[in-house]
Amino acid sequence: MSGRAASDRPRVVCLAGDGIGPEVMAAAQRALRALAPDVELEERLFGAAAIRAVGTPLPPETLEACRTADAVLKAPIGDPEFDAADVRPEQGMLQLRAELDVYANLRPARQGAVDLLIVRELVGGLYFGARGVREDGTVFDTCEYHPREVERIARRAFELARARRGKLTSVDKANVLETSRLWRRVVHEVAADYPDVEVEDLLVDNAAMQLAVRPEQFDVLVTENMFGDILSDLAAAVTGGLGLAPSASLGDAGPGLFEPVHGSAPDIAGRGIANPAAMLRSTALLLEHGLGRPEEARALEVAVERALASTPTPDLGGTATTADVSAAVLRALSG
Ligand code: NAD
Ligand code: IPM
Ligand code: MN
User: Fold this and answer.
1) Three-state DSSP state, 14
2) pTM above 0.85, yes or no
3) Range of the domain at 12
């Protein structure tokens, strides 16, 4: 925690985002107000809304507010209007992750016998390498990792595996990529400090197949930025869908960033039918990892479970609206 005196109220910066963002953020804020009324919620401009208002997705005041907050709660951003534009909402999101240096993106997926955690490196790799256009028209993106960047995410993953079932799967493409060979070497160097954790390597294409057919074999998976992006949507799909999948992005110091795995869902935006569970579960992760309040986090998780069982949204085969789920969560919290 950072940026405040012990007597002050905890400050959470809320970024409502685009598309279904404001719809699921409203549910998260209602739950937070009910559960932790002392927490100060501060709204800031971000994403497509910020591009429209001030021409940039991450205005300096928003970044400063996030830096000095105790935690950042972020709804999804992204708007088809800006897909081909020079200035895009996604740029603000990558910049925010990098500025907060939240390199460890925890993406849990749980259902029935499946209980896995994807630990995605979040501030390096293909997303942040040199890119451009050559004179002949060739366009390029590059993937780079420094051993230090691999070491810190590997260490974090081993720590998490140690506190869970003690199994770590490192996912790479070491049969092709230089960065993956570095990844594998560093993971095994770090493994020497964690003799109690069983470590295995898995090539990313096989990892995708294994996740689809036998997800229950996994405990913690650690992987680079883009592989983690893709595999986490797949892990969500095999454990109930994107509407349920939360994430926590943590650094070594400073505020964490908490957001759903899913995007702004333009195909259902404005209809009030988005599943707010991923956003609510991200809020539970914020309570636990961002504010150090595991009891309230657990209470919210249980309330979300109950609400989903009684009032499923269309993505789960039901007919409930976002507001119905939100109301059911509040009822579960108070009773
Ligand atoms: P998406 O995750 O927004 O949607 C994929 C599918 O899942 C859609 O059919 C959508 O309706 C459904 N879905 C997603 N969340 C749901 C929810 N809570 N309840 C019910 N259904 C849900 O992916 P996309 O359509 O490829 O991307 C849309 C935009 O979101 C893009 O601009 C993309 O860049 C952005 N995006 C942002 C984030 C983020 O802010 N963290 C994450 C992913 C994508
Ligand atoms: C996610 C999203 C983002 C990512 C996009 C919107 C930049 O897909 O959070 O999973 O790839 O990190
Ligand atoms: Mn993604």
Assistant:
1) strand
2) yes
3) 1-102+251-335
44 by DSSP, 3-state: which?
Answer: coil
Structure tokens at 103: 């390199």
The alpha-helical segments, DSSP class H, found in 238-293 are: 277-285
Q: In terms of domains, do 118 and 201 share one?
A: yes
Write the CATH number for 64.
3.40.718.10
For residues 270 and 215, membership in a common domain is answered with no
Phi, psi of 206 (to 5 degrees): -65, -35
Q: How far apart are CA 67 and CA 324, in angstroms?
A: 34
Which ligand neighbours the alpha carbon of 122 most closely? 2
Give the ligand whose atoms come closest to the C-alpha of residue 88: 1
Is the shortest distance between the CB of 122 and ligand 2 below 6 Å? no
Token representation of residue 200: 């295995």
Ligand 1 lined by 314 (C-beta under 6 Å): no
Pocket of ligand 1, candidates 83, 96, 264: which has the most ligand atoms within 8 Å of its Cβ, to mutate? 264
Among residues 197, 218, 242, the one where a domain terminates is 242
* Per-residue model confidence as pLDDT tens digits over 99-149: 999 999 999 999 999 999 999 999 999 999 999 999 999 999 999 999 999
Q: Whose CA is nearest to atom 25 of ligand 1?
A: 265
Given 185, 218, 242, the domain boundary residue is 242
Q: Rounded to the nearest 5°, which phi and psi values hold at 139?
A: -110, 140
Is residue 206 domain-shared with residue 316, that is, in the same domain?
A: no
What pLDDT does 15 receive?
A: 98
Tens of pLDDT, residues 174-201: 999 999 999 999 999 999 999 999 999 9
Strands in the chain per DSSP E: 11-15, 40-43, 71-74, 104-111, 114-121, 131-133, 139-141, 167-172, 198-203, 220-223, 246-250, 256-260
Instruction: Give the pairing type, strands 198-203 and 167-172.
Output: parallel
The CB of 242 under 6 Å from ligand 1? The reply is yes
Rounded CA separation 203/194 (Å): 22
Candidate list 127, 194, 219, 315, residue with the active-site label: 127
